[in-house]
Amino acid sequence: MNYIDRVREVQKERKDRTMQNEIFDHLIKVLRQKNITLLQVFEEIDDDRNGYIETNELHDLLERVGFTINEEQVFELVKTMDENTDGRISYHEMKNYLVSLGFDVESLEGDPKALA
Predict the structure, then answer these.
(1) Is the confidence at residue 96, as pLDDT, over 80?
(2) Which tens digit of pLDDT belongs to each residue from 40-59?
(3) What's the CA gap between 40 and 53, in Å, rounded?
């Protein structure tokens, strides 16, 4: 890989990371505004109630809350969170990813009334 290609790759990674931070920053704000837990949001995204968030479920949610995001970007986001590479996100994986971004996940769990 030449220098120019590597610079483009790094710029894309930065842009993707910024977008991911914006998505989850928005998600955390919604959690706090609606006084709901992280688990409740996870269950809301998990349309088919199989205990996992698939790419299409995440894409639908992000579009509903106003993000303009294409399927490739959502796939990259899922791939980033997917620790065991099974193509879907468990609650544990989502929680770990939020921690890796620096969010205080512990404050978003437990009794919803405690989030106020």
Answers:
(1) yes
(2) 889 988 999 999 999 999 99
(3) 13
Containing domain of residue 73, as a range?
3-115
Judge whether 56 and 2 are in contact, CB under 8 Å.
Answer: no
User: What's the rounded Cα separation, in Å, for the pair 60 and 49?
Assistant: 15
Tell me, what amino acid is at 68?
A: T
Residues 52 and 89 sit within 8 Å (Cβ to Cβ): yes
CATH number at residue 19: 1.10.238.10
Number of independent structural domains in the chain: 1
Q: Please report, as a single letter, which amino acid is at residue 51.
A: G
CB of 82 closer than 8 Å to CB of 92: no
Asked if residues 78 and 87 have their Cβ atoms less than 8 Å apart, the reply is yes
Q: Per-residue pLDDT for 90 more than 90?
A: yes
Using pLDDT thresholds of 50, 70 and 90, give the confidence band for residue 110.
low
Helical residues (DSSP H) of the chain, grouped into ranges: 3-34, 38-45, 55-64, 71-81, 91-100
